[in-house]
Amino acid sequence: MTTLRFLNRPLVSILTNHLIDYPTPANFTYMWGFGSLAGIFLSLQLVTGIFLAMHYTPHVDLAFLSVEHIMRDVNYGWFLRYLHANGASFFFLSVYIHIFRGLYAGSYASPRGVIWVVGVIIFILMMATAFLGYVLPWGQMSLWAATVITNLFSAIPVVGPSIVELLWGGFSVDNACLNRFYSLHYLLPFVLVACVLLHLAVLHAQGSNNPLGVNILVDKLPFFPFFWLKDVLGWLFFLFLFSLFVFWGPNVLGHTDNYLEANPMVTPAHVVPEWYFLPLYAILRSIPHKLGGIIAMFGAILVLLFLPLLHTSNVRSSIFRPLYKKIFWLLCLDWLILGWIGGNAPEAPFLEIGQVATGFYFFWMLCLVPALGFFENYLLNLKFQSK
Question: Where are the beta strands (DSSP E) in 13-158?
């Protein structure tokens, strides 16, 4: 009994330090609750994914039928699948809001650069896991999305064709490819959980950011019960919204072509990914050159890793940066435009609008952020010198 108590002490200490007594800035708003909300949806995806895997068959002749079996024959199988499918969308929605809140509050700035970088790695793992999962139902859009995306790697000089053959396990998207994607889709979520735990550990070691973007002169309160209750209210609202999709519009966020069994002899009129990939899909198509499009698409994600280095302002929060606040909302509008363009056919005028939106995205990240920081520092120096 004494040994059991000794073993339990470290676990109790971890839970107490990180979930109960953790000193939290008193000026937290509801926008700071989307990180925990993303954790809830990640847990939901893990649980439902494990149960779905018990009935799924990763074979090109049986995958689509096994999904139909889950929907029709397994007790509450329809419920599990709709939770999993719509849970992915809400997981991405909460993470997107979490990322843009971080951009608004300057959470990527020193000394929280490592926290931000780990968060971007989590986002990359999320996208890889979601893409692999999109292929598993083996509908028309699943097959052709896998064909289009894997074929992109063929544009890489020298090693491109070998990478494609490695992904396919042969010379086309077939059974070996589906098995590879299924295995990776089952494995990556556990890597994702490990990265989330690292993200939380680094965050709590450094301390949370707050709307003011300063670490001094901000009162701290224990996380429980004050912010537990605040987060729970946000969870209930989003879970209510989530339930509306699960029970009344479970297929609204999906593509109709994916409810047809995959047929390599019939090409869909327009290959469209899930809505959370649409901005990146628009960036991919905005570059006429195939390799250039791949570089732009991956560059749009990887540039986020360098934001801690691109941040040059002495001020962190947008509350004290009126110019940055305006260009931040321009970035939000630009991201929505890219999402709209990604859902349309690759033709005029959508291609031209997508090219302009893509150019502005990279201009914002690589030019506006550092240039505005230098300009703000210059104005602050003038103000102090005048005094």
Answer: 23-25
Catalytic residue among 66, 94, 107, 208: 208
Query: Where does the chain hold its CATH 1.20.810.10 domain(s)?
Result: 31-214+224-273
Query: Annotated catalytic, 172?
Result: no
Choice among 55, 59, 69, 230 that is catalytic: 230
**Residue 22 confidence (pLDDT) above 70:** yes
Is 55 designated active site? Answer: no
185 is in an annotated binding site: yes
> 253-290 burial, b for 16+ CB within 10 Å, e for fewer?
ebbebbeebbeeeeebeebbbbbbbbbbbbbbbbbeee
| Residue 204 annotated as catalytic | yes
* 59: annotated active-site residue: no
Please tell me whether 204 is known to bind a ligand. yes
Distance CA 167, CA 176 (A): 9
Query: 31-214+224-273: which CATH number, 1.10.10.10, 3.30.450.20, 1.20.810.10, 1.10.1240.10?
Result: 1.20.810.10
pLDDT in tens, 245-287: 999 999 999 888 999 999 999 988 888 899 999 999 999 999 9
Q: Which residues share a beta bridge with 326?
A: none
Q: Which of 257, 261, 274, 376 is catalytic?
A: 274
Residue 311 assigned as binding residue: no
Burial label for 329, CB within 10 Å (0-12, 13-18, 19+), is: exposed
Residue 86 CB burial class (10 angstroms; 0-12, 13-18, ≥19):
buried
Place of tokens 């609008």: 353
Asked if residue 225 has a cis previous peptide bond (ω within 30° of 0), the answer is yes
With beta carbons less than 8 A apart as the criterion, state whether 221 and 229 touch.
Answer: no
Residue 6 has pLDDT above 50, yes or no: no
Asked if 274 is an active-site residue, the reply is yes
Of 231, 257, 261, 334, the active-site residue reads 231
